[in-house]
């Protein structure tokens, strides 16, 4: 029997994307279909979503949803089965999903995503003359009030709360509580109250039937004060409901053998064709030719990503014989630091501020290594794309980076299992050492090729992770519908990431 899941998320590729969340949400429906799970994606009605929506049907009209007229629409956008909250007063705006054109958070984000969560909980319960869903799956703080609304409604729809990055907690002042439509007792430490205000993510973590993170190591880390951002106590208290399921990637979108964004497509046995893409990277980023490695960065330019440290390494990279091609956007002082480095080391460092999907593919297909020096990283996708494309990852030993990269130490190299380079502390000295080590290995062409080939052998598709999500959905849905438990068990049992 097919399991019906409502995936509640603020972005989904290719309709709207600011980072890995969009990629994951866009890939989940196809990943889960082979496991007997039918996913409907619930999205805000941003202009890009409304433009792409086809065969739209009105399911319900609100006279006032958080003070605005709104409609619930169902339809399709490509392969995505959608339900959309059409609320122009909240979503038909210039800028991005969360910020205005200048990068400042919208002041009414609590209303925009409070309304989104309220409507999602209504849909999940089947309030609009439509069948209810078996499971509601909420992603990050923007959707995290949906499990809270289900909880306080007394609904019998189980909910899963996925933390893609616990650093973004969705905290708002306590005076918004009266507008949320929740009972008064919900405003407590055993509810939505969080550090004297309202915590959207805290509410989801407290009220959901299960919590997942996007890698097993990150599931462990967020129970520690260093990574938990003030929510570590709640995570530890619910440790028997916390699971780590590593993200997958869409192997159709990210496939070097068929990628239309590459000048030359290639496979593991035709790695020599990457040279054409390498020349294209040099052209796109105004880099001089050379025999040293091209390091690339595709990232938000923030301190979380360690980009402040990397910006200070520009001269070291050049002195060591490397070159750097970077694309990203973020904190202005970091953007400026990289732009200054590009001016000082013209032809050796190329920087493009912003995001370009085509260039991000080209960098993976033509650069020698991708740098991911994150101070913490729930999962990370760029290192997975790098492994798939033979772009060797150099990354901090944290979160999903630690779960997905096998360090090129002597033992791993001898065994032929190494796929990249890991380092512990994100600082100038450790980064300098790992870059020096990587360049040394790069000069040994057979060793470097072996790293590339082993990375490309790894399976980071959604096959196994989709299976684990399907098993988790059934585990909690079967309490309401026992027949849903009849699906065969997965090849490997789902394991709690945090033991009791």
CATH architecture of the largest domain: 3-Layer(aba) Sandwich
CATH topology of the largest domain, anyone? Rossmann fold
CATH homologous superfamily designation of the largest domain:
Glycogen Phosphorylase B
> How are strands sequenced across the largest beta sheet?
3-4-5-2-1-6-7-11-12
Span from first to last CA? Answer: 33 Å
Helix content: 25-40%
**Principal-axes shape call:** globular
Average pLDDT for all residues? 94
Question: How would you briefly describe this protein structure?
Answer:
Helix content is 37%, strand content 20%.
Characterise the protein shown here:
GO terms for molecular function: alpha-1,4-glucan glucosyltransferase (ADP-glucose donor) activity; alpha-1,4-glucan glucosyltransferase (UDP-glucose donor) activity. Belongs to the glycosyltransferase 1 family. Bacterial/plant glycogen synthase subfamily. With 500 residues, the protein is α/β, with parallel strands linked by helices. It folds into two domains: 270 residues, 3-Layer(aba) Sandwich (Rossmann fold), CATH 3.40.50; 190 residues, Rossmann fold, CATH 3.40.50.2000. The strands form three sheets. It has a nine-stranded mixed sheet with strand order 3-4-5-2-1-6-7-11-12, with helices on both faces. It is globular and about 65 Å long.
């Amino acid at each position: 029997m097919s399991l019906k899941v409502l995936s509640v998320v603020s972005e989904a590729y290719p309709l709207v994307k600011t980072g890995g969340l969009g990629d994951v949400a866009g890939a989940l429906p196809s990943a889960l279909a082979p496991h007997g799970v039918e996913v409907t994606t619930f999205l805000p009605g941003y202009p890009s979503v409304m433009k792409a929506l086809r065969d739209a049907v009105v399911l319900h009209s609100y006279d006032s949803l958080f003070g605005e007229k709104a409609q619930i629409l169902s339809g399709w956008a490509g392969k995505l089965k959608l339900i959309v909250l059409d609320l122009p007063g909240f979503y038909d705006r210039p800028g991005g999903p969360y910020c205005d054109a200048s990068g400042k958070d919208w002041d009414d984000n609590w209303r925009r995503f409070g309304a989104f969560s309220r409507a999602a909980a209504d849909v999940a319960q089947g309030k609009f003359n439509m069948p209810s869903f078996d499971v509601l799956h909420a992603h990050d703080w923007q959707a995290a009030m949906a499990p809270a609304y289900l909880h306080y409604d007394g609904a019998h729809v189980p909910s899963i709360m996925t933390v893609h990055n616990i650093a973004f907690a969705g905290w708002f002042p306590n005076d918004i509580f009266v507008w949320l439509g929740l009972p008064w007792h919900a405003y407590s430490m055993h509810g939505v109250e969080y550090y004297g205000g309202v915590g959207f993510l805290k509410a989801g973590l407290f009220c959901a039937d299960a919590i997942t993170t996007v890698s097993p190591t990150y599931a462990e880390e967020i129970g520690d004060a260093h990574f938990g951002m003030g929510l570590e106590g709640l995570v530890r208290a619910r440790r028997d409901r916390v699971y780590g399921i590593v993200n997958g990637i869409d192997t159709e979108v990210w496939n070097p053998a068929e990628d239309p964004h590459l000048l030359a497509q290639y496979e593991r046995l035709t790695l020599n064709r990457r040279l054409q893409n390498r020349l294209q990277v040099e052209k796109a980023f105004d880099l001089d030719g050379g025999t040293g490695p091209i390091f690339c960065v595709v990232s938000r330019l923030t301190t979380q990503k360690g980009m402040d440290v990397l910006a200070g390494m520009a001269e070291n990279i050049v002195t060591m014989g490397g070159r750097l091609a970077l694309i990203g956007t973020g904190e202005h002082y970091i953007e400026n630091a990289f732009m200054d480095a590009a001016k000082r080391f013209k032809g050796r460092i190329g920087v493009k501020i912003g995001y370009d999907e085509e260039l991000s593919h080209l960098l993976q297909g033509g650069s020698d290594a991708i740098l991911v020096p994150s101070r913490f990283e729930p999962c990370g996708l760029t290192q997975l794309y790098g492994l798939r494309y033979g772009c060797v990852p150099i990354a901090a030993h944290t979160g999903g980076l630690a779960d997905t990269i096998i360090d090129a130490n002597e033992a791993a190299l001898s065994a032929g299992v190494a796929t990249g380079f890991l380092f512990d502390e994100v600082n100038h000295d450790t980064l300098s050492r790992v870059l020096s080590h990587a360049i040394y290995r790069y000069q040994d062409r057979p060793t470097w090729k072996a790293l590339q080939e082993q990375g490309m052998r790894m399976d980071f598709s959604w096959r196994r992770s989709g299976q684990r999500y399907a098993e988790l959905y059934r585990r909690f849905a079967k309490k309401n519908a026992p027949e849903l438990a009849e699906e065969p068990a997965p090849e490997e049992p789902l394991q709690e990431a945090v033991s009791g």
